[in-house]
Design a protein that fits this description.
The complex is a heterodimer of chains A (111) and B (111).
Chain A: E1 3-7, E2 10-13, E3 19-26, E4 32-38, E5 44-52, E6 55-58, E7 64-70, E8 73-78, E9 87-94, E10 100-102, E11 106-110
Parallel strand pairs in A: 2-11
Antiparallel strand pairs in A: 1-3, 3-8, 4-5, 4-9, 5-6, 7-8, 9-10, 9-11
Chain B: E1 4-6, E2 11-14, E3 19-25, E4 33-38, E5 45-50, E6 54-58, E7 61-66, E8 71-76, E9 85-92, E10 99-101, E11 105-110
Parallel strand pairs in B: 2-11
Antiparallel strand pairs in B: 1-3, 3-8, 4-5, 4-9, 6-7, 7-8, 9-10, 9-11
Chain lengths: 111, 111
């Protein structure tokens, strides 16, 4: 069966510091991978998605970036965090059936 | 008009009652529809999907789809306090890689 791992679960970072969140999927090949952000009490905002190694589509221009160095690894990064980057970050994967399955999420607080 | 709309709630129902959650969508070409449940502080989990007009039942959950009216509903029979969560409606777009999520309806089941 497929599983998705996301870490860390919680992160507190100062403004201006870098960020690296990692997500890995097991039990499937060539998944579509997604990064979402959910602000407190708000809906899911799609940040990036990837259909293959090195293929990244950005939905929201901002100070975040994403990379997919391996088939089942997806990384979300920032060189300098802003206060507005605080939120709940979710990684998800899907196959050709459109259904997305989410990781446990990372709660990021930028102070 | 938003692509996927849901009433944010909260929707309060007594334990044992039927909870009815509604979602409207704008893309007439949409073929599949998903319902996710998100407990507070947790990531969304898929509970139902429906592709065809009519009803689909799974235990206490029934998804109803009306493509002509562009709405999809989720009924929860014999509601339990453990059903208290936010329910997200999700609709894949023309680009199969992307799914648009509604902002969710918060359900509160009162013991």
């Amino acid at each position: 069966s497929q599983t998705i791992h996301q870490w860390p679960a919680t992160l507190v970072q100062p403004v201006g510091s870098p960020l690296s969140l990692e997500c890995t999927v097991e039990g499937t090949s060539n998944p579509n991978l997604y990064w979402y952000r959910q602000a407190a009490g708000r809906g899911l905002q799609l940040l990036f998605y990837s259909v293959g190694i090195g293929q990244i589509s950005s939905e929201v221009p901002q100070n975040l970036s994403a990379s997919r160095p391996q088939d089942r690894q997806f990384i979300l990064s920032s060189k300098k965090l802003l206060l507005s980057d605080s939120g709940f970050y979710l990684c998800a994967w899907s196959d050709t059936g459109n259904i997305q399955y989410f990781g446990a999420g990372t709660r990021l607080s930028v102070l | 008009q938003k692509e996927v709309e849901q009433n944010s709630g909260p929707l309060s129902v007594p334990e044992g009652a039927i909870a009815s959650l509604n979602c409207t969508y704008s893309d007439r070409g949409s073929q599949s529809f998903f319902w996710y449940r998100q407990y507070s502080g947790k990531s969304p989990e898929l509970i139902m999907f429906i592709y065809s007009n009519g009803d689909k039942e799974d235990g206490r959950f029934t998804a109803q789809l009306n493509k002509a009216s562009q709405y999809v509903s989720l009924l929860i029979r014999d509601s339990q306090p453990s059903d208290s969560a936010t329910y997200l409606c999700a609709v894949p777009g023309m680009s199969y890689q992307k799914v648009t999520f509604g902002t969710g309806t918060k359900l509160q089941v009162i013991p």
